[in-house]
Amino acid sequence: MNYKDENWVGKPGNIIFMAGDRYVFNYRKGEHNVVVVNKEGFDNCKTTPTDKVYTSGKDSITLQHGDNYFICSMKGHCPTMRTSRHVP
């Protein structure tokens, strides 16, 4: 399954995500990015050098079992531009 999150305002509602599903972020390249972070990074809008950064503007990320956390690391964008998805 692919779920597209347009400009970080997507509301998946009652969708149940499964490990291996693709979560797609669409945004203007150069204006945003998507960084896969841990819970601490999500809560504090902080990244580490080992976090995976996506910058294509059409990023398709495979969801993992457990909690998946994503932020935009562009200055001033997080906490508004962050989202998380739980995968049972």
TrEMBL record:
Superkingdom of this entry's organism? Answer: Eukaryota
Molecular-function GO terms, alphabetical: electron transfer activity
Which intervals hold domain Phytocyanin? 1-88
InterPro entries, A to Z: Cupredoxin, Phytocyanin-like, Phytocyanin_dom
UniProt-listed SUPFAM superfamilies = Cupredoxins (SSF49503)
- Give the protein's recorded name: Putative cupredoxin
> What is the scientific name of the source organism?
Helianthus annuus (Common sunflower)
